Amino acid sequence: MKTYTLAELSSVDTPILVPLYEGADLPQAFAGYAADLDQLELEAGKQYYLLASKGSSEKSLILLGLGKPEKMTGKKLRETVGAAIRSTKKPLCVFTDPAACEKISAAEAAAESAFAAGISQYNFTKIGSNPEEAPEISFLSSEDISGVCRDAALTAACVNHARDLSNMPSNLMTPEVLAEEARKLAGELNLECEILTNKELEEMGAGAILGVNRGSSHGARMIAVKYEGAPGEEYTALVGKGLTFDAGGYNLKSAAGMVGMKMDMCGAANVLAALELIARRKEKVNVMAVIGATENKIGPDGFSCDDVLTSLSGKTIEITNTDAEGRLVLCDAITWAQRLGAKKIIDMATLTGACVAALGSNYTGAFTNAPEFLKELQSCSEKTEEKLWQLPIDEDLHKMVCESSVADMNNCVKNRGAGSSLAAAFLEEFVEEGVDWIHLDIAGTSDFSDAKPYIAKGANGVLIRTLGEMFRTVNR
Fold it and tell me: Which catalytic residues are annotated (predicted)?
């Protein structure tokens, strides 16, 4: 990735994308261009081409409308710039200064533009095909923006890594393959990595994840990757649900509901990529990614309703719905994270359709036992504009979760509503006293079913950027 200052303008050898607000003048650096901006509608997304005359040393310009500056946000800027880059499909140099306004600093405009370039150019490579090389996008400013652009490009690369993992077909992204991906990343970054197979899980008594795994021909994996950037300090665990395919078990999903279930591992992919971002930035924090990975399929030994599973914590669980499997995988992962020393936990999962019904596809449902911990995360999500909405957990919900005549609890409360809160209450039963915990239900926000002008369809790496902000200690 190249960056230029205006003093190096003559070195730019591609067309220059110049974002402009309504009513703005053409930047002084391009004062030689004959363009009557009063005749142009610079509403967001509109593009105008100013071509250099033949033999001229001037650069060809693409003017990109941003609309009114008072309506601009970081999210709108990256979507507008990303859509322009994605549609142009040619090498460009983005002049970031004109995108700054009262709400967005020059550095933020550069960072959002660089992030947009990385995210918008991503396309999942068709199986058996060679990846297409993306056109080179460079950046121009009156200041040195190399640092913020490098950081934004790194963030986009980590988000795209998660998208690659989640978009991979489930026959190629099995629990074993996911574990090897984690091991490979840990080796590259010189991180501690521990992977438990069915044998170790049986020996330690992780009966919840093993129960879900019983119908699959692929073994389960429990994965922990540790990054130590602050020796001696306490660890935070990012815990992810890694269902590489979820057919629903004997509570079989409908044909329509089955499509896309390869992405039931978005929580796992996203926490692994968030840890990657933290480690590559060399943040001064201690963070681990803990992933429970399995398939939920039908098989001769598949778990079924009325079964009782004994979790890693020792608590027993009556199975009332085999399609409420994510919480079973997560509860053992949460227990293991605490045994590995985590004093704070953020778990992320495509957990409940009820959360989609409640919040749609723009808000992630958030639950916590530690309001100040959640406030910290919400503050970071406001910066990235990845929306969170807190939903309740209370004593009545815990009582419903613990209703069972044969076990300590049930895995799915029937016909009582509040499905996402009940799932969160189930998970909280496994959080030890004194451990701060946040549960993020990304069932509605983890992927796009259709492509948008600024991003391809499929997994989107939601909240990786927010988690990166939460653990930021090193300046860009």
Answer: 253, 327
Burial category of 150 from C-beta neighbours within 10 Å (exposed 0-12, middle 13-18, buried 19 and up): middle
Q: Is 154 helix (H, G, I), strand (E, B) or coil?
A: helix
Q: Residue 225: what residue type?
A: V
Question: Which residues does residue 308 pair with via DSSP β-bridges, in sequence order?
Answer: 318
Please check the confidence at residue 55 and state whether its pLDDT lies above 80: no
**DSSP string of 440-471?**
EE-TTTSEESS-BTTB-SEE--TTHHHHHHHT
pLDDT digits (tens, 9 = 90+) for 57-114: 668 899 999 999 999 999 999 999 999 999 999 999 999 999 999 999 999 999 999 9
Contact between 83 and 67 (Cβ < 8 Å)? no
Q: Is 394 annotated as a binding residue?
A: no
> H/E element holding 83?
helix 74-88
What pLDDT shows up at residue 285? 98
pLDDT at 358: 97
Q: Which of 355, 320, 288 is nearest to 211 (CA)?
A: 320
Output the pLDDT for position 282: 98
Mean model confidence pLDDT for the chain: 95
The rounded distance, in Å, linking the Cα atoms of 219 and 200 is 11
According to the annotation, is 246 in a ligand binding site?
A: yes
Closest CA to 452 of 86, 161, 115: 86
Confirm whether residue 325 is marked as ligand binding.
yes
**Catalytic residue ranges:** 253, 327
Rg (alpha carbons) of the chain, rounded to whole number: 24
Res. 450 pLDDT band, cuts 50 70 90 = very high
End-to-end CA distance of the chain: 16
| DSSP string across 322-378 | TT--HHHHHHHHHHHHHHTTEEEEEEEE---HHHHHHHTTT-EEEEES-HHHHHHHH
pTM of the predicted protein model? 0.97
Angle between helices 266-281 and 175-189 (to 10 degrees): 0
Collapsing DSSP to helix, strand or coil, 41 comes out as: coil
Determine the pLDDT at residue 50. Answer: 80
Annotated ligand binding at 323? The verdict is: yes
Q: Residue 463 contacts by C-beta under 8 Å, 6 or more apart in sequence?
A: 270, 274, 348, 364, 381, 386, 440, 442, 445
Give the per-residue pLDDT at 369.
Answer: 98
E strands, 51-201, are 61-65, 92-95, 137-141, 192-196
Apex CA 336: angle with CA 221 and CA 252, to 5°? 50
pLDDT in tens, 115-124: 999 999 999 9
347 annotated binding-site participant: no
Q: Please answer whether residues 241 and 350 qualify as being in contact, where contact means their C-beta atoms are separated by less than 8 angstroms.
A: yes
More confident residue, 29 or 248: 248
CA dihedral 345, 349, 355, 361 (to 10 degrees): 110
